[in-house]
Specification:
Elements lengths: L5 E5 L4 H6 L1 H10 L4 E7 L4 H4 L4 E7 L1 H6 L4 H15 L2 E7 L4 H7 L3 E7 L15 E3 L7 H13 L27 E5 L11 H12 L4 E4 L4 H14 L3 E2 L5 H9 L3 E5 L2 H8 L4 E5 L4 H4 L9 E5 L7 H12 L2
Parallel strand pairs: 1-2, 1-4, 2-3, 4-5, 5-6, 7-8, 7-10, 8-9, 10-11, 11-12
Amino acid sequence: MTAMPRLLMIKTTSLGDVIHNLPVITDIHAHFPDTVVDWVVEESFADIPRLHPGVQQVIPVAIRRWRKHLLQASTWQEIRHLRRQLAGHRYDHIIDTQGLFKSALIGRLASGRYHGQDRASAREPLAACFYQHQYPVARDQHAVTRNRELAALALGYPKPSDPPDYGIRADRPPDTLTLPARYIAGLHATSRDSKLWPESQWVTLGRHLQKQDIALVLPWGNAGEHARAQRIAAALGDAMVLPRLGLAELSAILGHAIAAIGVDTGLVHLAAALDKPTVAIYTDTDPLLTGVLAHNSRKVVNLGGKGQNPAPESVLQALEQVAIA
């Protein structure tokens, strides 16, 4: 009996980057349905590849945590465990779509034909030294397009030209939460203060939604984000501040929302990947290369850009546009 082909995918961080890699799994199975796919990912984002039915095994790493505790015996125990996991299979192909030194190094722990971007294409040119097979992938393309193109070059199928299929579906929200009957996910939190949308504009937006009997549901991930969510909710009265939740639970909440409105953050990409009407607000980055990209382009709008501050009225107009798509 011939063994099914096995592939190791390496995309470790960040949340948006991991989400942008999901269509690669769909593409691979469209061309090679019997392929068994394992995926190496940072532990805090492991719930994302687990959402895709085409991923057999998720192999978490903890590079961020390991760096802080290199002298602890437990760190080296975990690293040895990772080596055993990766050595447990002979992979037909290993693909590193991250293009970083750390991700390229992980792939060398496994056995198989190793594919990645060439020096001119990788985010860190040194990463290319680890790959047996290197490919040029133009950097002036959207991240999703670059990931899909690299996998196509590595495995020898045509470069995809169709819209990306992220291949994930939302589960049911937790039974312990009583969510509003009609709600929009307000994704107010992001990694840099320069990418935030002013709280006053969130409040203005929320008041317009109240007139339509739609509540804002506000997730958060740290103390500062929690405090911001509470301030917005206090000003509105009917907004809901969620408890701190994992990515699997948040994906369920996003998947059952009317729509999502968010700043430049991984969760806004997750909403689009779940095929929800999504308005993405950009204030300090260019959405051309990393903006929200959905299977149905009519369901998403990227507003703003570097040094811009989209008005609540513009967001509402965009929301109406995507909601009727």
